[in-house]
Amino acid sequence: MNTLIEHATIVTLDEAGRVLHDASIAIAGAEIVAVGDIPPTFSADERIDAGQRVVMPGLYNAHTHAAMTFARGYAEDLPLDRWFNERIWRLEAGLTPELVYWGTQLAMIEMIRGGVVGFADHYFHMHEVAQAVTAAGMRANLAWAVFGGEEEVGIAIRDTVPFVRAYDGAAQGRLRAMLGPHSPYQCPDAFLARTAAVAVREGIGIHIHAAETAAQVQDSLRRYDRTPIELLAHRGLFETHTLVAHAIHATDVDLAVLAQKDVNVAICPSTHMKYGMGVPRLPEMLEMGVNVALGSDGAGSSTALNLWRELRLAVLMQRQARADATLLAGDTPLRLAACNGARALGFERCGMLKPGFQADLILIDSAAAHFQPQHDIIANLVWVTEPGDVQDVMVAGRWLLRRGRLLTLDEAEVVAHFNAQVQQLQRRAPQGPLQRYAVGESL
Ligand SMILES: [Zn+2]
Fold it and tell me: If both were cysteines, with which of 63, 113, 211, 317 could 245 make a disulfide (CB 3.0 to 4.6 Å apart)?
């Protein structure tokens, strides 16, 4: 299938940051073959008049627990320890493959409608997620969450290796898969070392949480005489493609380690701010060359899977915290969500509109009133875009959303199945807290 999109404002997010007006983009199969100058030999099966609307790379959600849409609004206004112990662990005790399947589909509907083309997922029953993503046509990097403790949820790390082998590169390359040890605060130290050894031996990546709160860092220093980031480095977890979620409380030494080891970091501004976790050192990380991307985290914490909100909050929290209006200027927030996100997920030829890259793109209704005037289309995209402005979404050359209509997911069917599953889940939740999170005296 060859597609030609004409008369578009093309925000390429390429190295030069080019924005082309009244321009065309040619797509052959899954790949972009030309941007701007279309070769006369290109013949299109489908021609689309963009009517000067914006075409830009799709966004990549670099850290989420997609199926946790079931916990949306279930554990609000609580500190992290009570959020885990009193609400989330209890609800997850009744998790089933069916709930993960429908919960992930609900999340994908929300993400596709919001211009997200790929996501890094860290959860349980990941075969169901792989199946759902394959059918929906999105891109994803899947990590099966494991704790390495006695009360394992799901399966152990040795069992997740075959999962990674089976799905890394599957769905015509739209799927990547990694190991998913939960975090240094939940996993035994020896288990982390074992995970790193397996990852390096098998040549597979790791997706993990770390340094989310100041109390976690203090606890780690007390127990191991190392910060969480230092501990992960010491145990060998950064000797492969690693994606660290949060990394909020990074010391100068931690930052140097993240940069030197090419670690990918996913910050989740809504979750950081909502739970009062702190402000990540984003300007320093970018300055030092760390690939920082944006995640929504699960709907159980951030409540919404809205990357436009995340990219805006990423800027706002830094400028507010440092009283500096020049931070993260221009198209930087869009690059965090697009180019850096794709790289964090392990998709090297995604995240920019340029020949040879995958056709992962979105069309935005930039003719709407709140996009006028257009002194600076980049400023408008950063500061006013909401998920509802996204009209079309293409992943690997295939349309998933056209003129606001989902083509690969049946919203009414998904909502009905999902809500039925959530009702059953609530009936299964055990009484009383499950005390598995014990970090710091008082969080
Ligand atoms: Zn998370």
Answer: 63
- Nearest-angstrom CA–CA distance, 61 and 55: 19
Look at strands 54-57 and 2-11 and give their pairing. parallel
Q: Specify if 264 maps to a domain.
A: yes
Q: With cut-offs at 50, 70 and 90, classify the pLDDT of residue 154.
A: low
d(CA 394, ligand 1 centre) in Å: 27
What is the distance in A from the centroid of ligand 1 to the CA of 377? 32
- 185 and 201 in a single domain? The answer is yes
437 assigned to some structural domain: no
CA of 63 to the centre of ligand 1 (A): 6
Q: Separation of 301 CA from ligand 1 center, angstroms?
A: 8
Average pLDDT over residues 74-102: 92
CA-to-CA dists, residue 424 to 34, 70, 118, 235, 429, angstroms = 50, 11, 29, 41, 9
What's the 302 CA to ligand 1 centre distance in angstroms? 10
Centroid of ligand 1 to alpha carbon of 209 (angstroms): 6
Please give the mean pLDDT across all residues of the chain. Answer: 95
Task: Say if CB 6 and CB 26 are below 8 A apart.
Answer: no
pLDDT of 442 above 50: no
- Predicted TM-score (pTM) of the model is 0.96
Say whether both 44 and 182 belong to one domain. no
**What is the distance in A from the centroid of ligand 1 to the CA of 65?**
6
> Containing domain of residue 321, as a range?
59-344
Q: Which two tokens stand for residue 193?
A: 């070392």
146 lies in the same domain as 120: yes
Whether the per-residue pLDDT at 321 is higher than 60: the answer is: yes
Q: What is the pLDDT of residue 22?
A: 98
Report if residue 161 sits inside a domain: yes
| Domain harbouring 44, CATH code | 2.30.40.10
159 and 175 assigned to the same domain? yes
Find tokens 């990852």 and name the residue: 199
b/e string for 378-392 if b means 16 or more Cβ within 10 A?
bebbbeebebebbbb
Asked whether the beta carbons of 73 and 303 are under 8 A apart, the reply is: yes
Alpha carbon distance 22, 297 (integer Å): 36
**Distance from the alpha carbon of residue 108 to the mean position of ligand 1, in angstroms:** 17
Q: Are residues 236 and 385 in the same domain?
A: no
Tell me how many domains the chain contains.
Answer: 2
Looking at residue 441, its pLDDT comes to 41
